[in-house]
């Protein structure tokens, strides 16, 4: 239960923190536009984003849910 987040780099006081929905697994939702405004935002959020190749860059920095779903699909 709950959600544990791990920083991939040091975070200083006042730094903005962002998270990619693909690391969490958003479940069965209608795709929607993210309006966070981050420079590296992917813009669109899709329910199967966890299965896309770009998620590999996060390594182990994904939720257990995403890890299990990716393993089930041999990703």
**DSSP summary, beta strand count:** 2
Strands of the biggest beta sheet: in what spatial order? 1-2
Query: What is the CA-atom radius of gyration, in angstroms?
Result: 13 Å
Average pLDDT rating: 86
Overall geometric form? globular
Number of helices: 1
**Secondary-structure element pattern, one letter each:** EEH
Q: Which structural class is indicated by helix and strand composition? A: little secondary structure
How is the main sheet built? 2 strands, antiparallel
SS strand fraction: 5-15%
Helix content: 10-25%
Distance between the termini: 25 Å
Would you mind describing this structure in some detail?
The protein is mostly loops and 75 residues long. It has a domain at 21-72. Helix content is 12%, strand content 5%. The protein has one helix and two strands; from the N terminus they run E-E-H. It has one helix at residues 64-72, and strands at residues 32-33, 44-45. Strands 1-2 form a two-stranded antiparallel ribbon.
Draw up the topology in text.
Layout: E1 32-33, E2 44-45, H1 64-72
Antiparallel strand pairs: 1-2
Give structural attributes.
75 residues; little secondary structure; 2 strands
Task: Write a brief caption for the model.
The chain is built from one helix and two strands, in the order ββα. The protein is low in regular secondary structure and 75 residues long.
């Amino acid at each position: 239960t709950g959600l544990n987040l791990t920083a991939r780099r040091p975070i200083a006081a006042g730094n903005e923190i962002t998270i990619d929905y693909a690391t969490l697994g958003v479940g069965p939702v209608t795709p929607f536009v993210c309006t966070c405004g981050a420079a590296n935002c992917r813009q669109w959020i899709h329910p199967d984003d966890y299965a896309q190749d770009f998620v590999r860059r996060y390594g182990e920095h994904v939720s257990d849910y995403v890890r299990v779903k990716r393993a089930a699909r041999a990703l």
